Every structure is written in structure tokens, then in C-alpha cells.
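Lecture 7 notes: from sequence to structure.

We start with a single chain of 188 residues. Read the sequence below before looking at the structure.
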Amino acid sequence: MTFLSLSEIFNLIVMTIAVGYIFSGRFVVPKKQDPLLNYQKNSFWEDFKFAILVAAPGVILHELMHKIIAIAFGLHAVFKAYWFGLGLGIILKLINAPFLILAPAFVEISGNVSSLESMLISFAGPGTNLALFLIAFFMLKKKKMKQKEMMIWGLTKHINLVLFIFNMIPIPPLDGFKVFYGLWQILT
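Now the structure, written as C-alpha cells:
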């Protein structure tokens, strides 16, 4: 048995492309100088690649960590793209909405899950975002860094802080609800 099935790999690729598209144009990307035209420009593909670089890792690693921890507890876990959530994000991008609601994927877990296991599996995703935030925070303390590197780390820091805080809100179906509910079950 492999860690990721072909359908999970397909879902990861589609989710990555969708997240890149949804976030493209939302960041101020360093522009390339065009010496012939004497102005700065970026193609859609450069913005798209930059958006994937800064936005997709936090989302992908968040979901994969849920799967890794579930498997570590001997549970069956399957990564799935959330088509409605991806579609909503794409529609908001197409209409140039000033806000973004994005729930691109989830991990379906089956098996007998204890309260402690549920709490740890649920925290694994936001915990990953917290770890990525801290890595970016400390990387930004480096003295010498190129402008593009600084932007990547700054955006990584911001995106992962937002993902951590949002996912830890204790309302269903967010991870925070499952974390606090599991903790409540353990303590009572």
C-alpha cells in the first residue's frame, strides 16, 4: 500500500493548481524588467508560480499532516479535494471579491478514533501552519536576503498565521472545534 493513491495525487495536483490560480494576482510580486519595452511586467504564469510557491505549501502540508498522524495511529486516511470549496474560491477570484473563503481539501479518516487521537489528528494541520509560521519568522531574522526571498518568507509567515488562527476557531467543522471538543472529552 502506498502513502498516496493515484486519485489522491490527482486531487493534490488539482488543488495546487486551483490554489495557485485563486491566489495569483493577490500578492505584489517582484516585477521583471523588460529592457526592450522599458517597463516592468510579469506574465500570468510568473504570478501563478509565485502564488503556488507561497500559498500551496501551507494548505498541502496542513492536510497531509492530518493524514500522516492518522496513519501513525493505525487509521485509514484519504486526502480528498473539496470541490465545492475549490469552486467557491475560483468564483470569488473570477468576480474579484475583496475577500477569500477557501476550503480546498480535507482528509477522510475511518476507524475507531479515541478522543486523544482525534484531538492530535485535528491539531496536526494547524500545528503544521504554526511551525511554518515560526520557520518563516526566524528566516526573516536573517540579515542578508534578496527582495524576492524576503517576500516569499513574509507571505509564508502571514498565510500560515492566518491558516493557524482560522483553523483553530472552535466552530464546526474547523479543526479548532475538534481540538477543543477532544480536549473537553478527555478532561470530563
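Residues 44-72 form the longest helix (29 residues). Keep this in mind for problem set 3.
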